[in-house]
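Table S2 (continued). Query chain:
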Amino acid sequence: MDTFSIVITVSLIAYLLIGVYVSRNLKGLDDFYVMGRNASPFLICGTLLATSTSSVALIGYTGGAYSIGPLYFLLVSATSLIGNLFVGFYLGRYLRRLKLWTLPDFFSARYPSELTRGTSTVIVLASMILYLTAVLLGVNIVLGIVFGWGTIVSLLVTIGLVTTFTLLGGMRGVVITDTVMFVVFFLAAVALAPFILSAAGGWPGAFQTASVELPQFVRWRGAYGTLEAVSLFIELGIVGLVLVTASPPMISRAYIARSEKSLARGMIYLALLLPIFGYCFIYIFGLMPLVNPDLDPENAFPWAATNLVPSLLGAVALAGIVAAVLSTASSLFQQAAATLSRDIYQRYLNPGVSDTKLLVISRLCVLLVAVVVFVVTARPEIGSFGVLYGYLFAAAFWAAWLPALYAGVMWRGATTAAAAWSMIGGGVIALLVGIGRVYEVTPQWLPPSVCALLGAAVILIAISMSTRSSEQEIEVYERMRKPERLEDTPEEAGADARS
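Corresponding output:
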């Protein structure tokens, strides 16, 4: 075994051991679902960055900076940062006050009907499978380079590892391993950047050369034309905002915070670290054409890690990509399993289930999710389709419920009927436009996420204006406006959620 395979193997074993160790402190359902609502600001920051930074970002954004130019992707990343701050300082604090376990909990509380809960549950499960497909297929690039593994072996190893510590540790295991993995790939990004800069000509020579030889390096639109750049910026900007402000893995981090202040502080830490990460992982990779102009863009990061730095550092950098994939996948697994156990089994099949049995069922649901994801992702025909469209389709489904989510927090007049039909309508629009785009029936510049968002918003406003809010809807809306009580302990929060 060479240095790369040894380091990645050791890191995989380390993540597994950390997950197993953390599981020893799992005390019950509240720990499994929301980490006992006791996460510190640093853990919130670490898990948010780890969850949002998957192989889609590491491989896709570095490759995009290489082939198109970095400024365009930095602009897109800025929209995600704005979304994170919005959740931390506004949206998240209102969601916390309902003592939620899952996002469908919010929809069924704010919009009390089986239709809203059922629709939100379907969206969670469909989007988790789609996103997991994109994330897991992305790691095959690294594992194929280092170990020579095919798709099946890579999936078995990755899914097996993620399933183990998610099943044992639940949200507590996911958050702590997330944070450890975040430290690994953040340090890898920071350490890799100086070597790329040196190979490109050093500072300031590399930037001076790039300004002459790489026009896309200094243009905001990169290698795109203005209209194409604006269209893609809108799509990716909306996708970025949706990911951090409406996706179950990211929104769930608002539930685990120790307090509203802890959530806000975690977002401040993220706001300080994300620009450093963006500079090292996006901007500097815009210089890579000066180093090697003949690379396949998706191999820009793996090539830099294996050719420009000492082998040990390069191995840590590749281990960082694996860590990013595992952290994102574990969050998706946990949310999908929570939805199956909480929103389907407990809600519809066995409402009187005991906490002990529900914990067992929750762990079995992790295994079920693992089997389904493996069967879907291992199919040869998924391939590049899954990597390219899984992420965008998932974001489009989250965009379909974003108006109902935001209106539920911000608008007293949003009604249950409006929320239900806006989610259904937005989801149908996302599906039709997305499939039409795949088969080139609809224009490629027509983004499914933007269409779903606009369509759902129009439906929500139109129906809300023609219907009246019930007393129960207004009561939940007003409850979110009450400041968080200091005496609300994690134990009380868990009791509220179970009730």
